[in-house]
């Protein structure tokens, strides 16, 4: 009987680790890849860079540039982005890391000189790009883990 209990507990632990390992792991991206955050070679460079990945809640973005040459400015609207409006949250230190904790669309540009007009701007869509109207509970890993736990208990007590 004790060996059966040890087996069930061991199974539960191994299965739990497997479920949690399959959960989404946040990624860290270097903005612009190897190029970094500079005036790009063409105006669509950052749009092409962001289209290569699907970004999720918890992902982080590192803006690398030579200090004093660029900024990463987050503006609020698409209109401000399109017009290269240079007012918003201005990040002046190179290597700054920005992490997003909710779905939504975020607009970044460089507020130095005419860098934005030359294409140093990008849109980051987290999830579907639409901010949540309410926080819906996540049932995936928690529900699966709960079902596994109760199934193991049922098997233990029925045997």
From TrEMBL:
Give one GO molecular function term.
Answer: electron transfer activity
Superkingdom of the organism of origin: Eukaryota
Keyword Transcription listed: no
The protein's matches in Gene3D superfamilies, at most eight in alphabetical order, are given as: Cupredoxins - blue copper proteins (2.60.40.420)
Keywords in alphabetical order: Membrane, Signal, Transmembrane, Transmembrane helix
Signal peptide boundaries: 1-25
Q: Which residues cross the membrane?
A: 139-158
Q: Name one Pfam family in it.
A: Cu_bind_like
Matching entries from SUPFAM superfamilies are given as: Cupredoxins
Q: Name one GO cellular component term.
A: plasma membrane
Q: Where is the Phytocyanin domain?
A: 27-128
Matches recorded under PANTHER family: BLUE COPPER PROTEIN, PHYTOCYANIN DOMAIN-CONTAINING PROTEIN
Official protein name in the record: Phytocyanin domain-containing protein
């Amino acid at each position: 009987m004790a060996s059966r209990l040890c087996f069930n507990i061991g199974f539960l632990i191994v299965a739990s680790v497997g479920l949690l390992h399959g959960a989404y792991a946040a990624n860290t991206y270097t903005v612009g890849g190897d190029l970094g955050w500079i005036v790009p070679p063409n105006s669509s460079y950052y749009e092409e860079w962001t289209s290569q990945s699907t970004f999720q809640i918890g992902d982080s973005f590192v803006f690398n540039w030579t200090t004093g040459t660029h900024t990463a400015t987050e503006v609020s609207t698409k209109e401000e982005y399109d017009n290269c409006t240079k007012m918003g949250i201005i990040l002046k230190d190179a290597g700054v890391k920005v992490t997003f904790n909710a779905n939504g669309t975020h607009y970044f540009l460089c507020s130095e000189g005419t860098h934005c007009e030359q294409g140093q701007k990008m849109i980051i869509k987290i999830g579907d790009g639409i901010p949540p109207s309410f926080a819906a509970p996540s049932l995936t890993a928690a529900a699966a883990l709960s079902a596994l736990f109760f199934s193991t208990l049922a098997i233990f007590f029925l045997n």
